[in-house]
Amino acid sequence: MPEKKLNTKKNQEEKSELNQKVKSAMHILEDMVKLAQEKGLSELELKFEDFKARISWQAVTAAQPVLSGFAAKPAPTGTNTANEKPSLSPGTVQILAPLTGVFYRSPLPGAPSFVEAGDKVEPGTVLCIVEAMKLMNELNSEVSGEIVQILAKNAQLVEKGAPLFHIKLD
User: Fold this and answer.
1) N or C end of the chain: which has fewer CB within 10 A?
2) How deeply is 110 buried, as exposed, middle or buried, from its count of CB atoms within 10 A (0-12, 13-18, 19+)?
């Protein structure tokens, strides 16, 4: 019986040692990912004893509003052609997709949308999710105002730079 207790104690010590190694590797991995992101890298491979991890990610930048008051061309008259951009009223910004992915208006199917036309938003308000490579990227407003128009359809593929929302600034 003492031999069995010894084996159990030895197993617990081995598990504890393994847990410490895993924790150590995870801390190193977290530090390496932070450093790689700071340096603008998009991929990282780490080998540590028997542990090996390869991580790649797509850099996501915050949505930058486009001010409509500074258009280089005069507002188009008549109907829009494929190459013309719709004109925005003064004081309205256009929120663009920060990356290519699938646009979702709500966090889950059947759940209420993050925002609707007419809703007031502030900096930090979640507008939508853009899914890219199975990663859900929340798009937050950087301005205060009212949602005038939602341009993308739910579950629609959007390209980087595609207009998603029009927001009238406060």
Assistant:
1) N
2) exposed
User: How far is CA 119 from each of CA 19, 48, 58, 100, 146, rounded to the nearest angstrom?
Assistant: 49, 50, 31, 25, 6
pLDDT above 90: percentage of residues in the chain: 41
Q: What integer is the mean pLDDT of 145-165?
A: 95
Cβ atoms of 101 and 158 closer than 8 Å = yes
Closest CA to 114 of 60, 162, 169, 154: 154
Place of tokens 């080998």: 47
pLDDT tens-digit series, residues 14-43: 777 766 776 676 666 677 777 776 776 667
pTM of the complete model: 0.52
Q: In the numeric block, which tokens belong to residue 64?
A: 């930058």
Contact 130, 155 (CB under 8 A): no
Q: How many CA atoms lie within 13 A of 91 on its CB side?
A: 8
